[in-house]
Amino acid sequence: MRQILRNFKVLMKQVWKIDRKYFFYLFLSFVSVGIFSYYTIKTPKIVLDMIEASEIDIFSLVIIFLILISSAFLLSYSKVLYTPVGNKIRYRYLLDILEHYIYIPYEDYDNPKIQSNIWKIMRPVLSTDGLQAFYTNIASLVGNVSVLLVSIGILFNIQIWISVLILIWFVVYTALSIKSADKVDEETNKNIQLKQDEWYLDDIAVDVAYGKEIRVFQLQRWLEDKLIALHNKLNILNKKNYKTSAIPEVLNDIFQFIRDNLIFIFLITMYFRNQVSIGEFASYSVLIIQLNNALMATSENSKQILSKHDSYAEMLEFVNTPKQSNEGKAIELKDNWIIEFDDVWFKYPENETWVYENLNFTIEKGKKIAIVGLNGVGKTTLLKLLLRLYKPTKGRITLNGIDIWDYKLDDYFDFFAPVFQEINIFPFTIRENICFGRDFTDEQIIQAIKDSGLTQDEMNDFDLDSTYMTRYLHPDGLNLSGGQEQKFVTARALASKRPIYILDEPTSALDAVAEYDFYYKLDELMKEQTILFVSHRLASTQFCDEIILIENKAIIEKGTHKELLEKGGRYSELFMIQAKYYKGREAI
After folding, report:
1. Would residue 559 be called left, alpha or beta, if left means φ above 0 and alpha means ψ between -120 and 50 degrees?
2. Which of 15, 108, 343, 433 has the least CB density, counted as fewest CB within 10 Å?
């Protein structure tokens, strides 16, 4: 209950901040529904009494009609006004979640617990039956409470103990409904992995990236079997949840039957005893129908408002997590700068295995350095440390003698132009994919694309603003090969003109000849630039001032290409194994 009250307080503060008129809409709903309910019940008696007396009061009927039509209009108008408020807040929280998700520190972003919990965090804002329903149900509840007050008040004239019984059952039924809804929510959250698996398998079925494997390896039946098995599990869960929800509904149906029969017995008895007129009998009959509808709606409103609070709490906790801080020292670049790894040790959180032990090396301005090693030795992890995405477990990394974590984050990120191993090209135009909102001239963009090795034909005559980069959202977008995509993201880095270029497996999709040409052209183009090459393939190493070979959690060899070949150690062994792919080139 404490959590519900805390959530309720926060969510109502949010609506007060975003649209205070919502509370006026609640008042409008309460008044209009109450008036409409009262006259809906009373009108049959007034009309039938006039007919019995053979005295039709046109003026009174017109007034009643105007009251009914006006209150009905105000009721509809209040719904039109308050319904978008919940939608507005839902989208505000959705934006807030996404904003936090992209601004939280990368260590948290990369945390499997947050990754696996994101569906639960986003659940209140993914559809209209979550947070949006919370606000619309409050407004609806206010109107239904107004109906109940009017109906119960009139019912007191028939029989007080029936009114008390109805109120007691209403409280009991609402409590049972909320308890069942909480059980359903708890069961759903417990099996949340099923929902995530469903999303994932659904995405695989429609994602073009999986299309070739699905068809060539004839995975259709295999995928279909997995979906059927998953849906069977979901059906079991849904059936269990349905049974939980059905118990209060069945009890309420039984109570309604008993209650309505009792009321009609009393009405019939009172009529034959001349205690109520035919008009009052008709009005009370309308009251019973109206009371049924109001009780059901009020219970449903209460259930919707008081359930799902575990998900609301998860969402509210997430949007209150601190974003990545940009506090720190401004970077003042000197003529010469140096980055040093000083006795760096690292292991991932909640993992006892060290990725690196006692890592020491430097990156100096104007130098080209190759970080090489077999797959799985942690080369990409080293980049995460360098780029301040992860903090060393022990030791430190410095820029000009100052710990990189003491600098402003934005300043530090502006120091690097990375080409990551995972290629991400956004479904936007060529210009947007290169600039990301920064101000580059057409000449700068086109030159960077040319320098990467892409041709005018491949890039749709350099039509920067009309050509979209993928067919994911744009059917007429470019459909680049893996090698072309690698060149394009390299162009993105070249256009940024930052102090350090990082190329993480930049030629993994290129053949040996194209790979050599890529590095040769890059060496000619960027002789004075600082470049960090990261790869398990050794084609780049001959162009570098220093090669760092990583193995067994540490640097095992360091030197130039010539020095390491003459040494005849591990680097020489790896290079000779790969050398057959470069025969016929000057590299051999």
Report:
1. left
2. 343
Mean pLDDT of 117-128: 80
Helix (H) or strand (E) holding 419: strand 416-419
Which structure tokens are listed for 231? Answer: 């849906």
Which residues touch 20 (CB under 8 Å, ≥6 apart)? none
Mean pLDDT throughout 249-276? 79
Is residue 587 scored above 60 in pLDDT?
no
CA separation for the pair 331, 347 (Å, rounded): 28
DSSP per-residue string spanning 334-380: -SS-EEEEEEEEE--TT--S-SEEEEEEEEETT-EEEEE--TTSSHH
Q: CA-CA distance, 227 to 225, in Å (whole number)?
A: 5
Q: To the nearest 5 percent, what fractions of the chain are helix, strand and coil?
A: 65, 10, 25
Q: What confidence tens digit (pLDDT) does each residue in 421-451 have?
A: 888 888 889 999 999 888 899 999 999 999 9
Report pLDDT digits (tens) over 482-521: 888 888 999 999 998 899 999 888 777 677 777 777 777 8
Gap between the Cα atoms of 359 and 18, Å rounded: 51
Crossing angle of helices 192-206/160-190, nearest 10°? 60
One-character DSSP codes across 42-100: HHHHHHHHHHHHT---HHHHHHHHHHHHHHHHHHHHHHHHHHHHHHHHHHHHHHHHHHH
Structure tokens given for 80: 């039109």
Sheet containing strand 554-559, edge to edge, reads: 416-419, 500-504, 530-535, 368-372, 546-551, 554-559
Residue 402, pLDDT > 90, answer: yes
Q: What angle do CA 7, 114, 94 make, to 5 degrees?
A: 50
Q: How large is the average pLDDT for residues 319-339?
A: 85
Return d(Cα 34, Cα 17) in angstroms, integer.
Answer: 28
- Report the alpha-carbon distance of residue 525 to residue 523 in Å, rounded: 5
What confidence score (pLDDT) does residue 364 get? Answer: 92
Mean pLDDT calculated for residue range 183-187: 81
Convert 472-538 into a string of H (helix), E (strand) and C (coil): CCCCCCCCCCHHHHHHHHHHHHHHHCCCEEEEECCCCCCCHHHHHHHHHHHHHHCCCCEEEEEECCC
Residue 587 is given by DSSP the state T
Given a contact cutoff of 8 angstroms between Cβ atoms, the answer to whether 552 and 354 are in contact is no
Q: Output 452-455 pairs: Cβ under 8 A, ≥24 positions apart.
A: 452/487, 452/488, 452/490, 452/491, 452/494, 453/487, 453/490, 453/517, 453/518, 453/521, 454/484, 454/487, 454/488, 454/491
This prediction has a pTM of: 0.73
- Maximum separation of any 2 CA atoms in the chain, in Å: 121
CA distances from 133 to 19, 352, 442, 493, 550 (A): 16, 45, 48, 45, 55
| Burial class of residue 389 in the structure, from the number of CB atoms within 10 Å of its CB (0-12 exposed, 13-18 middle, 19+ buried) | middle
Average pLDDT over residues 342-363: 90
What is the phi/psi pair of residue 345, to 5°?
Answer: -120, 145
Domains along the chain?
Answer: 2-319 (1.20.1560.10), 334-415+503-512+532-580 (3.40.50.300)
Structure confidence by residue, pLDDT tens digits, 19-46: 888 898 889 888 988 898 888 888 888 8
pLDDT of residue 583: 52
Structure token digits, residue 308: 């799902």
